[in-house]
Write a structure and sequence with these properties.
elongated, disordered N terminus, 18 strands, 38% helix, alpha+beta, 11 helices
């Protein structure tokens, strides 16, 4: 039986380039890796392999370059599942310098890849450290210790609200709009500085969309996004799948509340009901939270904000460093893989 199954499989040899032939997005299609393992490896029916006589890592790098993807994108079938045939892929042209040049390009690009891998490893280590400190700081073993009291999200809020979605068929609700309108897919455990969409004053006056002030704790309550949280740093409106908590600052620091609900994402998500595991305002309002004195809350926030910036902030910290190195790598890669074609 094993031999019969093996006879039906396709195998890549050492040095072959294995390419993804399908993907959810155009960018996913055509992703390639050089197989450098010692033994043959079977690959999926939605992949194909190219055999060649060049440096395999050079070919894989060349198939990441901007020029390669510009050519590839012309051949991708734009159905629901994006697809590229092996025959189309074989028509794409890449520069093939002498092997010595290929090896030098690989050496340089490997250095960039190694640096990025080191930064990714450092980021993962810092994320584990952040999770450890967050869990330690937000664990209260004795409810009476240090004046800590247990209450609910609803009881430490001055107002809890949701929003609404103006009809997309009404262009007057969106065209020329200046009011930020937040959707749940933008709720990603971050500070919201802007929104992807805006609505008009007419939409605000005629629909369920409502303004909320800055510094609310926003929790998504629907489907795949349920349980995720964010803080809005600007006044905005939201759709109906956001539950918005205006925190009573005499009881709790809004950032302390944000860190608490973020750290209990799985617990909040598990309260979902029905086939879609949706939440609702009543469930979220009843979620328990320990409330230490305000001074202790501020101390906890100061520590966790530093870790949060280090591991999550795209404008600072390790994510910013990784993004900068990736952009630098892509620039050097495209420059190194740009050649003037020799005359025939």
């Amino acid at each position: 039986m094993r031999e019969e199954l093996r006879s039906q499989l396709r195998f890549a040899r050492t040095g072959d380039i294995v390419v993804a032939g399908v993907g959810e997005t155009v960018e996913d299609v055509g992703k390639a890796v050089a197989w450098l393992g010692g033994d043959d490896v079977a690959f999926h029916d939605d992949c194909f392999a190219f055999r060649h006589e060049q440096d395999p890592k050079y070919i894989a790098y060349a198939m990441q370059a901007r020029e390669f993807h510009a050519q590839k994108n012309k051949h991708v079938a734009r159905a629901k599942v994006k697809r590229l045939s092996g025959e189309s892929m074989a028509k794409i042209r890449i520069p093939v310098p002498p092997l010595a040049v290929q090896e030098e390009i690989v050496r340089v690009l490997d250095l960039f890849a190694a640096l990025e891998a080191e930064l990714e490893a450092e980021l993962e280590a810092r994320r584990r450290q952040y999770a450890y400190y967050r869990d330690s700081l937000l664990t209260f073993t004795d409810a009476a210790e240090g004046g800590v009291r247990w209450t609910t999200l609803g009881e430490i809020s001055t107002r809890v609200s949701s929003g609404g979605t103006p009809l997309v068929s009404r262009s007057d609700y969106y065209k020329g709009g200046t009011i930020p309108w937040l959707r749940t897919q933008e709720v990603r455990f971050v500070d919201i500085q802007d929104t992807e969409m805006r609505i008009t004053e007419k939409a605000l006056s005629e629909t369920a969309a409502k303004r909320i002030p800055e510094n609310c704790v926003i929790i998504a309550i629907s489907g795949a996004t349920a349980g995720r949280s964010a803080i809005n740093k600007i006044p905005l409106t939201t759709n109906q799948h956001c539950c918005n908590f205006e925190i009573d600052q005499s009881q709790a620091e809004y950032r302390y509340v944000f860190h608490w609900v973020s750290s209990h994402y799985e617990d909040i998500k598990s309260m979902g009901r029905g086939a879609r595991a949706d939440l609702n305002a009543s469930l979220i309002k009843g979620f328990k939270i320990p409330v230490p004195p305000l001074g202790e809350q501020r101390r906890i926030v100061a520590i966790l904000d530093q870790f949060d910036a280090l591991v999550n902030d795209l404008s600072d910290g390790l994510p910013a460093e990784i993004r900068a190195r990736r952009q630098q790598y892509e620039t050097y890669r495209d420059q190194l893989l740009s050649f003037v074609e020799a005359a025939a």
